[in-house]
């Protein structure tokens, strides 16, 4: 059972001031989660979390995470500028873009960010773009093939296909990149990799760590470079469905520690710092999309039409993803009605739920769509001329703050040339 972090009474008061739909975030939950993560990796003195800005590119959120000791993982010029405006600069930024224009490398260098190169060809391109090679540099590794992890506590198999991903360098390429970068003036090196998405297994990060730790030992021996950090990237997932088990970040941190002590420490690399780039894990559960039932339709199926649409939350339409729905005020009523919960786009995939068993929904009911704190608002768009919603922050003291106003028709027309 998933329980919203706001009550119906709170939402009644909030919607009297801010019309639906809107995204709302839980400050207390965000801070508590960031502290659990930091504690799980506190055994590593150089540990730093670089929040994946693409997940929730909202200044108020970035500032909260900055206060909790997090940096920013940026992948575009705009994300770099947003981080700078939030006071996050220097090595508190990891710039991990791909297919990167020169101007983005130039801004990353100006801000003092750690640049993570996605491809061997970017070695020369980076030097041409900024006129030098930074002393501290990172390269992204792609092992190819299929990554599988069968032994999980839930009995599920984690599987992804790095060989089909556009990101990262081959084993031979990353060795060549390190050798060339070292000859061009780089002094400190890092390794980055992302092998699976939204994993619900405490074993994923330790398994990834073992791959990267052994790679680090081998590369340092082969190339003679000084590897000072390893970036485990993201991939720690959240339980979107109510019966799925949540990851235990303390157990994950301990599993990584064991791998560190078994592989890096004996190789004389016990000073290597660890970085993470979590987005979904950091924010996903701490955001709701709040919407209101405005229509019902009875044809071959039962439909509930709400005032949000896929423009507010793309994941169900794009991936068929499950997002739990709570009908506010009816949490204890039986789920004995089968509905498709839909938006108003001219696309048949504009559905938040298909054949979902829910309590009877009446017009005007407020619905909370769970786990939209990451890759929710950020993936919004303007198809059919739909306007992007407001974002609100539920403060720790119970007050509510507008942190991004809703778009207006004037905003939509502003870039047009008539």
Number of helices: 12
Largest sheet: 9 strands, mixed
- The CATH class of the largest domain is identified as Alpha Beta
What is the total tally of β strands? Answer: 19
Distance between the termini: 51 Å
In the predicted model, the low-confidence regions spanning at least 5 consecutive residues are 152-156
* Residue fraction in strands: 15-25%
Give the helix proportion (percent range). Answer: 25-40%
Rounded Rg: 23 Å
Q: What number of domains?
A: 2
CATH architecture of the largest domain: Alpha-Beta Barrel
Shape: globular
Instruction: Look at the structure and give the mean pLDDT.
Output: 95
What is the CATH homologous superfamily assignment of the largest domain?
Alanine racemase
CATH topology group of the largest domain: TIM Barrel
| Helix/strand/pairing category | alpha/beta
General description of the model:
- With 418 residues, the protein is an alpha/beta fold.
- It has twelve helices and 19 strands.
- The strands form three sheets. Strands 1, 12, 13, 14, 15, 16, 17, 18 and 19 form a nine-stranded mixed sheet that branches. The protein has an eight-stranded parallel β-barrel with strand order 2-3-4-5-6-9-10-11, surrounded by five helices. Strands 7-8 form a two-stranded antiparallel ribbon.
- β18 (390-394) and β19 form a beta hairpin.
């Amino acid at each position: 059972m998933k329980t919203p972090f706001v009550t119906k009474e709170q939402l009644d008061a909030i919607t009297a001031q801010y019309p639906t739909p809107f995204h709302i975030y839980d400050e207390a939950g965000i801070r508590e989660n960031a502290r659990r993560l930091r504690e799980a990796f506190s055994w590593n003195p150089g540990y730093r979390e670089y929040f994946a800005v693409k997940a929730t590119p909202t200044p108020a959120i970035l500032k909260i995470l900055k206060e909790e000791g997090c940096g920013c993982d940026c992948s575009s010029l705009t994300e770099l500028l947003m981080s700078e405006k939030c006071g996050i600069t220097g090595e508190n930024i990891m710039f991990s873009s791909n297919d990167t224009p020169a101007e983005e490398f130039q801004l990353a260098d100006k801000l003092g960010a750690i640049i993570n190169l996605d491809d061997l060809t970017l070695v020369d391109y980076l030097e041409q773009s900024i006129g030098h090679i930074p002393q501290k540099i990172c390269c992204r590794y792609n092992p190819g093939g299929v990554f599988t992890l069968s032994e999980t506590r839930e009995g599920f198999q984690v599987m992804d296909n790095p060989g089909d991903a556009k990101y990262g360098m081959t084993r031979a390429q990353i060795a060549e990149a390190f050798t060339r970068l070292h000859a061009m003036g780089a002094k400190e090196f890092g390794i980055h990799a992302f092998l699976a998405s939204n994993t619900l297994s405490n074993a994923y990060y330790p398994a990834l760590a073992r791959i990267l730790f052994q790679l680090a030992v081998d590369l340092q021996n082969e190339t003679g470079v000084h590897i000072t950090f390893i970036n485990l990237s993201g991939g720690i997932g959240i339980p979107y469905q109510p019966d799925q088990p949540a990851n235990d970040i303390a157990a994950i941190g301990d599993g990584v520690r064991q791998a560190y002590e078994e592989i890096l420490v004996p190789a004389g690399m016990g000073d290597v710092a660890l970085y993470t780039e979590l987005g979904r894990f950091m924010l996903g559960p701490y955001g709701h999309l709040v919407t209101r039932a405005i229509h019902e339709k009875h044809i071959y199926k039962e439909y509930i039409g709400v005032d949000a649409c896929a423009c507010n939350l793309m994941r169900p339409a794009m991936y068929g993803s499950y997002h739990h729905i709570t009908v506010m005020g009816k949490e204890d009523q039986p789920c004995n009605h089968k509905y498709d919960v839909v938006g108003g786009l001219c696309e048949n995939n504009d559905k938040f739920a298909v054949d979902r068993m829910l309590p009877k929904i009446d017009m005007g009911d407020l619905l909370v769509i769970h786990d939209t704190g990451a890759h929710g608002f950020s993936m919004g768009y303007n198809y059919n001329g739909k306007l992007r919603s407001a974002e609100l922050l539920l403060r720790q003291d119970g007050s509510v703050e507008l942190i991004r106003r809703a778009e207006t028709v004037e905003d939509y027309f502003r870039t047009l040339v008539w």
